[in-house]
Amino acid sequence: MTARLDAVERTALLTAALRAAETRRPDRLYADPFADRLAGDIGPDLLAEVVAATFPPGRRRTLPSTPDYNAIRTRFFDDYLQDAARDPHTTQIVLAPAGMDSRAHRLDWPDRVRWFEVDRPSVLAYKDDRLGDAEPRVRHHKVAVDLTDPDWADRLQDAGYDPAVPSTWLLEGLLYYIPEPDVHRILEQVAAVCAPGSRIAADVVNAAALTLPGMRGLLEVFAGWGCPWLFGTDEPEALFDAYGFDVRAVQPGEEGADFGRWPDPVPPRSEREVRRVFFVHGRRR
Description:
This protein is of the alpha/beta class. The chain has helices at 7-23, 35-39, 43-54, 66-86, 103-106, 121-131, 152-158, 180-192, 216-224, 236-241, and strands spanning 92-95, 114-119, 139-144, 168-171, 199-205, 245-250, 277-284. It has a seven-stranded mixed β-sheet with strand order 3-2-1-4-5-7-6, with helices on both faces. Helix 8 links the parallel strand 4 and strand 5 (199-205). Helix 1 (7-23) crosses helix 3.
């Protein structure tokens, strides 16, 4: 995998490096003991590029603080998944894509939960190699398929996923890296295999985050890796509503998505031409 990295794989290694750095902080929001090994040799170099762009020496920061954002995002979705798992009706959790996520290994889960990780074969093979003999703390099912493949949902069901039973989904670090038609296609496919009452969560940026001059430094880093940001929406609730999900969207720094770490003002939703990230979470009608 490290010899030929594409968008999802590169950003997965970056996320692992960010989680490793957060774990070393005395004021960390979570601990990921697997992040260092998952980041491998390339992850720290990717992180160094992002940090250099975000905190340019001698100049005011205009970009969002990626380390703080990633820490808040990880903790927010940790809490979201653990809260879902406390519901006695929760028996299926799906991470699509799974990337270098280690929640199945680093957090405790009820015995009734089955955990599905969907990602490309090369990603899951690399992850298996880096994790070695580390055992997940949950009944763990790996689904080696690309989310752009038309039959990925069928492959998920072949692995034991039951679309008739409510499930919990996390689409983390995905939607802004794919073209808008693929965003709609994936949401349509997820909705088709989500029973009423199923939970969903995702992160998404707004449209201005793709074009604002103040974002150029970060956007150029990702584009230079071959991972440009391609999709954003100012109406995340409407996006998910179109596929049968009633959701709330909160921004880092707002109540429940701060944890004392967001360093910037949070502009009201009525303000235009500002960068935003949304944490979307809700249920299937």
